[in-house]
Write a structure and sequence with these properties.
β4, α6 and β5 form a beta-alpha-beta unit. A five-stranded parallel beta sheet has the order 3-2-1-4-5. By secondary structure, it is of the alpha/beta class.
Length: 167
Amino acid sequence: MATHKIKPLEEMLRIRTGMRGQGKKLVFTNGCFDILHVGHVRYLNQARTLGDALVTAVNSDRSVRENKGEGRPLVPEAERAEVLSSLACVDYVIIFDEATPQAVIDAIVPDVLVKGADWGLSEIVGRETVEKAGGLVCNIALVPGKSTSSIVARALERTDSLRENSG
């Protein structure tokens, strides 16, 4: 298992200090990653190409509920973190409990901050921190039609259809 990639913030700060000392670039992204799908995998692989290591911050269960509403997440935070940590393109995973990753970004100050293109550059949380430190903030194109919300909607439609056809 790759759960050794899941780090508390304190350990991630030590890793970050070491990377700075070696002149290596740290890329940061974040999200719920509730149901990992091809859109996530392509996005994370592309993000990883922007530096020497990719840290992926995952919303805690409480944080997901705050942002997405009751009924989410579908997958518990420890499992979401474990799945992400198994991807070769993800070097580190952090779980954060706040509504946004601002405090984590302020602590780590990554060299590159990445979000999906559904976020305008001016909307990206942590942008000011990263740019002030001379870093790069960018967004990556999403894979059309590939989202957790669309997967959930499709599953519900199919469930309803199965109920109608079996009754």
